[in-house]
């Protein structure tokens, strides 16, 4: 996790960070509900942060649009610099892939809280093969989203976290092979907040702990049921156990045979 300290939202006098959020377009009811539900993972991870959903778009810190195919967001309080009430500060493009929509929402809300892309961390263990990267990506996107570096003094950051929701998928051939570094490897998309995502966002916003019901993407194994134990002898309704009971009762319950000779 890598967070720009200059872009963190200020807390109220009670220590709570309240961010008002609205949607620019009418309709899209199910998508609005989906965004509120999934974005709640950040609130669970950081209880001092509260998203205030409002229909008053003129009084929002963050304005969300569902138009277009791309997903993007202003970084943290940069959203407040955009005074055009008709302009989105976050866009959430549509995809029919449920897991990918989830990733986009968590990723863009991470940006909205001040997080930057994980590979921009000072602790990222590789350098880029610029030509390979630019060959595979549009020039502007490559330089703005991947090859860009930030001044360390403005950052709160963890060790490089390949589980972070803020990590872009990357190909191993985009990364330089250096004998002193780990061998380059493909980096895949993540679909949940990692432990460090939660920990360092709490650190940035001075939150103490996550909510108890905050989901853990790496749950512990469930306890296994106790082994089945064959029950003991079943009393015969006429009284006593096994001895003297008719053969049909012993056959039914698997009890010992009584020699009737």
From TrEMBL:
GO terms for molecular function: metalloendopeptidase activity. Residues 215-234 have a biased composition (Pro residues). Residues 211-234 are annotated as: Disordered. One of its GO terms (biological process) is proteolysis. Gene3D superfamilies: Collagenase (Catalytic Domain). SUPFAM superfamilies: Metalloproteases ('zincins'), catalytic domain. Residues 34-173 form the Peptidase M12A domain. Transmembrane segments: none annotated. This is Peptidase M12A domain-containing protein. It comes from Penicillium polonicum.
